[in-house]
Amino acid sequence: MTKIKNICCIGAGYVGGPTMAVIAHKCPDVKVTIVDLNAERIAAWNDEDVNNIPIYEPGLAEVVASARGRNLFFSTDVEKAIDEAEMIFISVNTPTKTYGVGKGMAADLKYIELCARQIASVAKNDKIVVEKSTLPVRTAEAIKNILDNTGNGAKFQILSNPEFLAEGTAVEDLLNPDRVLIGGDNDEDGQKAIKSLVDIYANWIPEERILTTNVWSSELSKLTANAFLAQRVSSINAMSELCEKTGADVNEVARAIGMDSRIGSKFLKASVGFGGSCFQKDILNLVYIAKSYGLNEVADYWEQVVIMNDHQKKRFATNIVRTLYNTVSGKKIAFLGWAFKKDTNDTRESAAIYIADALLYEQANIAVYDPKVEKETIYKDLDYLESRESAQNKKGVVVFENSYEACKDAHAIAVLTEWDEFRTYDWQKIYDHMKKPAFVFDGRNILDGEKLRKIGFVFQEIGK
Ligand code: NAD
Ligand code: UGA
């Protein structure tokens, strides 16, 4: 068995950064080097002030500070890190394809292939290559094909080790995961490679929570886990619409069903719709894979989760327009929250982007406040949709650093992220400075409706 002394991770993003920082923190005798093509990102990871690292996650700065410069390094020198490492994690992005065959559905594996080719060209000795990115089932086969044709005699073992962390709780999830999943080949070399990785995690994770499988089960389990999680959100959101029509309360329904231990209480919060870089991408990828095997019923079944999510976002925006007397033209709508969930600065696929887009079509003036998201990110998110000229987005959306200022003179407020601080605001003060009637649309069901109605707000929430 190879005792791992040097790890390289390609991709210093939301997964590579926190995952490797925790490995370095927990395994002081293993040198961990995280590399990325994005020099700006690497510079931010190396920033003298650890609070300036590029990803906001509770507890991450402390973990990075504990290991950086000791056995944790961030670099743009990809080749050197590959050369030195016995184990290489691939943690690059695998977005939905935006061109060619599978456009809008399949995972774009060009970054994965580039990594494999770079490893192939640099490696002079045997390496264990670990898929950390979320990949279509059987990707390891393609990676192996590329690596086995290097012509330099090096041997490679491919492991699948998907990551289950959720943003906002990444450090806690990594320190104390429900399970770690490692897939590898069944032959002797495969089992040895698995054992090398098990030994890394065993430094802080009880062995019974380290699950080993074959490669294909591991790859497919990751897509399956995300599909099941997203399905729960779409299921409760579907019920939220029915609740609104029938006088049932979605929070009460969620509580009632969640107490059934077969169903469980987690992941049953009705919302304006799930966001994040992965749920939609991974389900569409699953749909594409199913279709490519001719499994159309399987594909349709999972696609419905995304269709339902789009519907939930759309109906939230439509409801705002309808409630504001069928026009929001020239009206100020304040957004509390832009991130796709609380405790992260990540905005990828955030529901807020689509709500803003829909309201901009209706000529609303949008004022955004988010405690962690940068102004440039918000404009970039809107420009990415290509719905209108960039200048129009800048004209229609103003970003505030102070939430009370964002809400001042607004006709309505939409709560789009469940940041804790929103609950503790002086809502009377906010009401006093808004146009009347003052509307609040709580897309996260976090505010105290009774209190807000007493103040005078017209208050609407999801599923009630
Ligand atoms: P990300 O975009 O934050 O980071 C990916 C990084 O890889 C980028 O910084 C990019 O510059 C770099 N990169 C791309 N190609 C490269 C190359 N050839 N050489 C060096 N660097 C390269 O992405 P992420 O959110 O960290 O996601 C990475 C993978 O992990 C995806 O497959 C995703 O589905 C999966 N995943 C993400 C999460 C999450 O919470 N974000 C959780 C579990 C799994
Ligand atoms: C999700 C999974 O939870 C992770 O296990 C997985 O590793 C990750 O995707 C990934 O593969 O990227 P993440 O997207 O970071 O993690 O965050 P979640 O907590 O799952 O939330 C996703 C979205 O669903 C958010 O917009 C959240 O607000 C929404 N959500 C979640 C609800 O609307 N209701 C809920 O009950 C739970």
Automatic annotation (TrEMBL):
SUPFAM superfamilies: 6-phosphogluconate dehydrogenase C-terminal domain-like, NAD(P)-binding Rossmann-fold domains, UDP-glucose/GDP-mannose dehydrogenase C-terminal domain. Its EC number is 1.1.1.22. The keyword Oxidoreductase applies. Pfam families: UDPG_MGDP_dh (PF00984), UDPG_MGDP_dh_C (PF03720), UDPG_MGDP_dh_N (PF03721). It is an enzyme of class 1 (oxidoreductase). Substrate binds at residues 163-167, 222-226, 262, 269-275, 340-341, 444. It comes from the Bacteria. GO terms for biological process: glycosaminoglycan biosynthetic process; UDP-glucuronate biosynthetic process. InterPro entries: 6-PGluconate_DH-like_C_sf, NAD(P)-bd_dom_sf, UDP-Glc/GDP-Man, UDP-Glc/GDP-Man_DH_C, UDP-Glc/GDP-Man_DH_C_sf, UDP-Glc/GDP-Man_DH_dimer, UDP-Glc/GDP-Man_DH_N, UDPglc_DH_euk. One of its GO terms (molecular function) is UDP-glucose 6-dehydrogenase activity. Keywords: NAD, Oxidoreductase. NAD(+) binds at residues 11-16, 36, 41, 92-96, 133-134, 167, 278-281, 348. Residues 334-449 form the UDP-glucose/GDP-mannose dehydrogenase C-terminal domain. It catalyses: UDP-alpha-D-glucose + 2 NAD(+) + H2O = UDP-alpha-D-glucuronate + 2 NADH + 3 H(+). Pathway: Nucleotide-sugar biosynthesis; UDP-alpha-D-glucuronate biosynthesis; UDP-alpha-D-glucuronate from UDP-alpha-D-glucose: step 1/1. The active site is at C278 (nucleophile). Belongs to the UDP-glucose/GDP-mannose dehydrogenase family. Catalyzes the conversion of UDP-glucose into UDP-glucuronate, one of the precursors of teichuronic acid. This is UDP-glucose 6-dehydrogenase.
